[in-house]
Amino acid sequence: MPNEEKTPTAQVLIVDDEPDHAEVMAEALRRLGHVCTLVNDLEAATDELKHGQFDLVVTDLVMERPDDGQKVLAAARQSQPDAETIMVTAHGDVPTAKAAIKGGAYDFIEKPLDLDVFRTLCNHAIQAVMLRAQNTHLHERLDEQFGFEGIIGGAPSIRSLITTMRQVAPSNIPVLITGESGTGKELIAQALHNNSKRTKKPFVPLNCAGLSASILEDELFGHVKGAFTGADKDRQGRFEFADGGTLFLDEVGDMPAEMQAKLLRVLESGEVVRLGDNSTRHVDVRLVSATNHDLNELVKEGMFREDLYFRVKGVELHLPALRDRREDIPLLVKHYTAHYAKQLDKPVPDIAEDVQMLLMQHAWPGNVRQLMNVLQGMVVIAEPGRIEARHLPAEVRESGEAADAGSSQDGGMSLDKIEKKAIRDALRTTAGNREQAAKMLGIGERTLYRKLKEYGLK
Q: What is the pLDDT of residues 377-422, one digit of tens each?
């Protein structure tokens, strides 16, 4: 048992209706430093699982009732989802124990126990729990260092953006978020609201693209009964609904000219007038706007009011395109594959190394939104446990050589430079821990060692 000394101390719940047998198992594990709690029936086990915290549950399969062990397993799965369960069974109950594994048990062991085998099996289960906990802690560190309300990235541009967001969020200053479609502008707006003093009030989004002036006016300011045909009752506009909170105007650059003047008037006075009404209503709203246009250019072209531009641009936050922060792709892939696997109740898949490279090479014209859609599709269609190149959409799979060949012509980063930067960032994030860096990048440790040597990194 050479590895047993290295297994961290664990909290173990032992359930057996034979007290002497429970004590034997407990003593075998206590000698390794584990803390054991002993109970002798289903009811006591259920109570401990509700109120205690355990890494491992060892339960007899058949106790007072034939299905007591199965019920302990079910209770453990509900109350202690991070714990593992080992079933102890007589020879004749092996088929039932195998069925329990399909129901979520880690493994089973037959009576009479070989205590050496029992200790080893328990330690393997405990190590699996501890490894998951370490990975969770790593992700929490990554979120703490690079995340802000779901904004994931370690690229300098993203770190600078998050720093500015933390400074701006508590204030009431208007914010203009710029960036290409699919970069996550609404996510930024929501994060600003969630970290402001207005977080308990509404966050109200409205996409201005494609809306006529009359529809947009009704959406923003509301109307009174009889204001127009079909207006059979009073209706609040988005400004009133967002009172005390945040109004997010997406694609504000597409707003018709006549509505720009009316929006400016509300922003200057803090008062709205519903369609068909003469009375004013005061509103206290923080405005966050977003656009994929260059508003400064639209001002020069006479398509956007200069005074409104200065009003909405208290602080500008620019979201870079994904192709300009390719070193963040492994982190995004890791996060969203786990997210979609959890949604689908599937195990988190491993990602083949050639898939990681192809994902990093692709230009991603649809940015993070496109990457998320691709990852969701791959998690859906991939066999449990692994995503391979054949699961990639054709346009991503076939763009690898073209992207790498074109990088020297368009001034972009070559694949080698992208890889090197991603490895450096991963090592920085994990404080030089190569094992964790390899997991974060989705590659094997041997591959990481080879890349470190290849790129002359230490």
A: 999 988 777 898 889 998 888 776 454 455 444 444 556 666 777 7
- Per residue in 114-139, pLDDT (tens digit) is 999 999 999 999 988 887 776 665 55
The tokens describing 221, both together, are 């300011």
CATH number of 4-130: 3.40.50.2300
Q: CB-side exposure of 357: number of CA atoms within 13 Å?
A: 17
CA distance 352 to 330: 12
Q: CATH code for 323-455? A: 1.10.8.60
Cβ–Cβ under 8 Å, residues 17 and 40: yes
pLDDT over threshold 60, residue 435: yes
In this structure, CATH architecture of domain 171-320 = 3-Layer(aba) Sandwich (3.40)
Give the CA dihedral 399, 372, 370, 416, nearest 10 degrees.
-40
Given a contact cutoff of 8 angstroms between Cβ atoms, the answer to whether 164 and 277 are in contact is: no
Please state, in angstroms and rounded to a whole number, the distance separating the CA atoms of residues 211 and 198: 28
Burial (0-12, 13-18, 19+ Cβ within 10 Å), 288: buried
Task: Give the helix/strand (H/E) hosting 311.
Answer: helix 306-312
Q: Which has the closest alpha carbon to 294: 208, 178, 174, 184?
A: 178
